[in-house]
Amino acid sequence: MSSRFGMRSFTMLASVAVIGAVTLSTGATAHADDFSEKKPLLKGSTTASYYWDDASGRNGDTGLPASGKPMQKGLAASPSWPLLTEGYVIYKGKKEPFFVGDRGPGVPSNRGIMLDLDAKTFASLTGGKFNSSSLTVDGVGGQGHIKIEYVITKWGPGVGKKNHPVAFSTGAWSRKDAKPATPPVVTAEEKTEKKDERPETPAAPAQVAKKAPEQAPEKAPEQTSAQASEREKAPQAELAAAVTTRETESNGVGGLALISALALLSGGMFLARGRIRKAFDR
């Protein structure tokens, strides 16, 4: 990373007037949540390094970024794009927004390293962790360069090349570009892919006339085993009672008839006792 700083101090002196005007005329940077939904103005790929300049003088720190913006997540250095250009990078499917707030890398841009990401964005893309003491990224095995895709969504208002990046040594960063790149045409397949990435909104349920629910027959209350046993015995008891009553009634009638017959027999014998004696006397 240290080799990128060779041209930084020279750049600061050469472009201080232009930078001051750009900084005063520009507002917020590119950190909107919908950054990837903006129309692309340029697409490409390159190798990206990382750095963190906070004016602390640590790890080759050359001072505050050239734009005058404080060092922060999302601030990147470009060797040729206009300051305050906005866009996002893609690494292994992960997207992170950035804006051009500095110049660089210097000499590394001659070797095809055309973007210097801030250390926090680099850590987010690679799964590492920013070390605030050493201003480096831990947990990536010392990795300092990654292959990324870039998408530009807004060009900065100042000087610089509004096209694919070129090395810092070309001086394109200091010249006004009157012929920016033609925005790429978004194909139908890309539109479909982007649509598929969005979560689908569940369709409203169809309005169907609902039939009134049929009322289920009332369920008899649950019975305890004792109650069930009593209910089973009830018909048998009623039958036994009826039989007993009938037998009692029958026995009562028979008893009365027998008593009546005995009474008549006794009365007849009493009345005929005289005749009976005479019969025995003969």
Q: What general form does the structure show?
A: extended
- Overall pLDDT, averaged? 75
Q: Would you count the extended β strands for me?
A: 8
Largest sheet, in brief, is: 6 strands, mixed
- DSSP strand content: 15-25%
Strand order of the largest sheet: 2-4-3-8-1-5
Instruction: Give the % helix.
Output: 25-40%
Distance between the termini: 168 Å
Q: Which series of helices and strands comes N to C?
A: HHEEEEEHEEEHHH
List the total number of helices.
Answer: 6
Strand-pairing-aware structural class: alpha/beta
Rg for CA atoms: 53 Å
**pLDDT below 50 for ≥5 consecutive residues: which ranges?**
1-32, 245-251
Written account of the structure:
- With 282 residues, this protein is of the alpha/beta class.
- Helix content is 32%, strand content 18%.
- The protein is built from six helices and eight strands, in the order ααβββββαβββααα.
- The strands form two sheets. The protein has a six-stranded mixed beta sheet with strand order 2-4-3-8-1-5, with helices on one face. A two-stranded antiparallel sheet has the order 6-7.
- The radius of gyration is 53 Å and the shape is extended.
